[in-house]
Amino acid sequence: MNLPDLTVTDVRQYVYCPRIPYYRYTLPLERPVTAKMDLGREEHESTSAKESRRTLKAYGIKEGERRFGVDLYSRHLHLRGRIDMVIFTRYELVPVEYKMTSDVGLHHKYQLAAYAMLAEHTCSQTVSRAFVYLTPEKRAVEVPITAAMRERVRGVLAELRRSVWNERLPAPTPHRGRCYGCEYRRFCGDVLAGGA
Q1: How confident is the model at residue 156 (pLDDT cuts 50, 70, 90)?
Q2: Which of 30, 62, 87, 153 is the most exposed place for a label (fewest CB within 10 A)?
Q3: pTM summary value
Q4: What is residue 133's predicted lDDT score, i.e. its pLDDT?
């Protein structure tokens, strides 16, 4: 089996629940689209339009160029992604991801770390921080990008490739509350039956 390049979305979903990207790559079906996904896509488009008219004050940056919907790729990592926004200043690159939530989860932080790694490969410049922009609260939260986060992203990519390559179903998330809104819930019979 030739495994395609993985995506930054795979990294985020793996940290949220390792089974989600596994199902995407191993089940021969169209990914179900939920109403929450449609709402999130609309919110992203609306936020990009508003963001282009704002200053960079929310990020504590005085001057910089904003680029929206930036495609990033690393042949070295076999990883690709499209980030909501990158701020280019004279001194740094700052990835920004919009989220329709009121807090920043661990999966969001590793998504940003993966984007930071892609930006570094694409632009040959180190990224030391990134932001999640919480759209309901209109607030930006800074996320430092550390060496440990980069190492964890590499580990996630390796674990995901192994599970797909060997067709070995990973353990589900221990946070069962996440299962209720999951588009793949019906495939996790062991979770629904109270196992795993």
Answers
A1: very high
A2: 30
A3: 0.88
A4: 95
> Do β-strands 79-88 and 93-99 pair in parallel, antiparallel, or remain unpaired?
antiparallel
Q: What is the pLDDT of residues 167-182, one digit of tens each?
A: 999 999 999 888 888 8
Q: Give the single-character DSSP code of 62.
A: S
**DSSP secondary structure string for all residues of the chain:** --PPPEEHHHHHHHHH-THHHHHHHHS-SPPP--HHHHHHHHHHHHHHHHHTTS-SGGGT-SS-EEEEEEEEEETTTTEEEEEEEEEE-SS-EEEEEEESSSS--HHHHHHHHHHHHHHHHHHS----EEEEEETTTTEEEEEE--HHHHHHHHHHHHHHHHHHHTT-PPPPPS-GGGGTT-TTGGG-HHHHTT--
